[in-house]
């Protein structure tokens, strides 16, 4: 099995396995060159070393690559990577018709007919290109999400004009045509037979032939008689039943001559369900034995020569094969011989089954004879059973020893041989099958997921080991299919569609759930459950959580009247609101610092995170004072020059400095003098204002030393 991340051909990146067939596994991959998803079919490792299987695998690619039709899965590329052989195909999003039937039980008639028309259209396109599918079955028919039906898996297809007839019978045993079951020549009518069986299953919910072994099922296709569809469901239109019966005739010549003829009747059945337009050929075999229910996925089987010989012996054709004789040189002559052999076999089959009469009626005299033989046979069986029971009960103990011995031998010969069922648990599937065959039992294999038992080993069996049962009984062994695990990828940077495709391609079941998230943008993936990098089992359901964006809720605005701004902000935050603009206004009723107004008003419904603006009281308005008259006063520099003056109190003189004039402690003018000559006493003055009639104290300083003070009056 290829692991996710493996790249084939430097181009196709494996994402995960999405299916498996008899010879190959199918993976979902991403084409890095064209940036699209594709399906990659990879030949299973056990067949890679087998030249025959590799050849069949290549034939599939060569056959299907030339087909282009809406009802056929397209083939893009074929390649080999070391010992890995692969085909790149169109990826169809959908389910197989088999799963669709299982899900619905059986299909509506119109739906079944529409599906059959699309399948027949795809078959017809293949037949026109001299290609026979030879494995038409519901498992090879895909129902896409847009309603399109596509035929896939040309795993055992071959060119119709091939001169070689295989000695093996290939196909899916529940849908195989009689000529394929014999290993004989097959043509377009073999596909028509298989489609007829598929249509039977669509309208009835079951296949017509079933059994415990492939041989028994194949033999029924050759000799058996199916239960007519209307006996299972009387609501099925007669025209549909006749179409099915015509498709599934034992003799190919009695079937539809081409897919085109079949499509014509299928379309008429849609318009005239009860019309009498389907012409059944003379000598059609009677339909009788009921088909059993519950057939699972029918895998493609290849019957070897030993199986074919069993079929031929069982059907009265021992030693006859469909091989071309060694002395044949002409392909056309070989084809004619094969057709003649088929016709001889069918004539022999007709003679053996007394159906030579065209009308299919039974001779009355023969009917009476058969009834007499039936009654006599029933009496003989009753007598034998009575004798066996009586002997076991000792009713015949008085009979002589010779008779007793003979009776004992007869009883032994009539009784079934008993045996003990071997213990297959823990053994590999191959070992268990060999053990059962050696013990004289038939077997049936069913796969089950198991975390503990290694893949391919037997988990349990029914009947259990050491049980005494008749030899020839079928023993079911349950084999572990393992429980493959994958690592959960990180899909947080993908769209929902991309993530779903990726996860489903890995074999996981996806469900989605939405939730609000303040950080992740709406529509993006928040997380997955299980989380990225966790190990999950194939088939497990995983959940993708998708963001709906931030959750928006409405809240009621609380009343903030009388609160200070700090407390108001706390109240707003508790209600998922914010404090907005704060302005002041005088109020004679509300103390300064308290809220007197808000917007939006209290009781209003608003979204969360809305801002609320408030107006805060600044207290009562101030009372105006009477206007005062402003006066001026002129102040001049002190006449006494402080520069270079030797003050009597011992303060040294100055050669230069800044003289500052102060009025009531406020500096009104400041001037720097660089020399004694620069200080021109009385030449500098300044005007200051004040209330008229009042006085002010004036002082003069030089470098912080007060050298003069006086008073002025504002006039």
How would you characterize the overall build of this protein?
By secondary structure, the protein is an alpha+beta fold. Helices cover 30% and strands 26% of the residues. The protein has 17 helices and 34 strands. The strands form twelve sheets. The protein has a six-stranded antiparallel β-sheet. A hairpin with a 3-residue loop joins strand 1 and strand 2 (12-20). Helix 4 runs antiparallel to helix 6 (188-204). It is elongated. It starts with 6 loop residues before the first strand and ends with a strand.
Ranges with pLDDT <50 over ≥5 residues?
159-171, 283-302, 316-331, 345-367, 396-415, 646-651
Strand order of the largest sheet: 1-2-3-4-6-5
- Structure summary, number of beta strands: 34
Largest sheet: 6 strands, antiparallel
Rg, Å, rounded: 51 Å
Mean pLDDT across all residues, rounded? 77
Offer a quick outline of the entry.
The protein is of the alpha+beta class.
